[in-house]
Design brief:
This protein has 169 residues and is of the alpha+beta class. The protein has one domain: Glutaredoxin (3-Layer(aba) Sandwich), CATH 3.40.30.10. Helix content is 29%, strand content 24%. A 7-stranded mixed sheet has the order 2-1-5-4-3-8-9, with helices on one face. A hairpin with an 8-residue loop joins strand 6 and strand 7. The model has no long low-confidence stretch (mean pLDDT 97).
Amino acid sequence: MKKPTERAPELHLDLINGTTWDLAKQEPENFTMLIFYRGLHCPVCKKYLEELQTKIDTFKDKGVNIVAASMDSEKRAKISTEKWDIESIPLAYEMSESKAREWGLYISNAIKDAEPEVFSEPALFLINKDGTIYSSSIQTMPFARPGFDDLLKSIDFILKEEYPARGGK
């Protein structure tokens, strides 16, 4: 797993709108925010991404590019966008298990019929303009994710105080 201040792993994924998303090609004013979500089966993911939808313009105003990605199939990802209120969030699909592990994500096996056989647990990364990791929050379960209001306040503080990435030792 990569640490803060280290170069983030490569990430190149297909988006449900028919385009591709490549971390190396991002040119945010301040950060790229990667949200790894569990998939269509996860009601906590639905609630979390729908909350992000209500704050996406505020993140953009702070110079933050956003993408949400999962190991879901294209079909399941498209169903998510049809059933969830997340129309402004770029949604990537079919992230491989090996790529999820490269990012340090925890992997789970299905315990219910509605779940995919294998999927990653949630995480949130802020990536600096130079492609290095600024911060990460990696979960083993669907619960206890970083709050978006707290993140927005933190980004204000980081930018105002030029606060460095921590935890890279």
